[in-house]
Amino acid sequence: MEGAKLDNRLFILVLQHPREQKEIAATARLTADLLLRAKLVIGLSWPNLGRALGDAGGPVADPRRWAVLHLGSARPRGFGLEREIVALDRHGQPAPDQEAMLRNLDGVVLLDGSWSEAKALWWRNPWLLKLRRLVLDPPRPSAFSRVRREPRREALSTIEAAALVLARVERRPDIETALMNALDGLIAAARAGFEMRPGVKL
Fold first, then answer.
1. What is the domain range of residue 56?
2. Mean pLDDT score, 177-182
């Protein structure tokens, strides 16, 4: 992608299910193209974090300093916490010190695909259990629902999840704005493409 990339500190590693490549409005590639420190890898399983990162350079593959957006049954609003990012302990409950869980992170892993595909990635990569677990409670439903149905209110597209994480953890609302503007452009292009196909409704 042409132009300067957004200078994020927190590395974003996107694990994409192979089937997701066929989606006309997938956001993983756009996310990786826009961010300076990001990588998109496609597959079903990797032996560990280091192998998934490959030659990305920069980030040290220490799972204790990485987090993953968790796909369990936890619903953030059920915890009674007014936070857009909730860190969980190993039992799926809010960690006692939320800020400590977000402090000193090197990167965050995002799982890209449909709900069932993302769950498949979770179960095929047991090393994800070694990472800190985060769940999102976004202030508004996904804008991406205009072109693709989300299974839960708190479910976001990959680019929206990256935007929210970087805005809150790095305190960089400018990155969130830039990523969301890019998403608006993608949605507009996708809708135009869909609308040219007879019989397809949004």
1. 11-72+82-195
2. 95
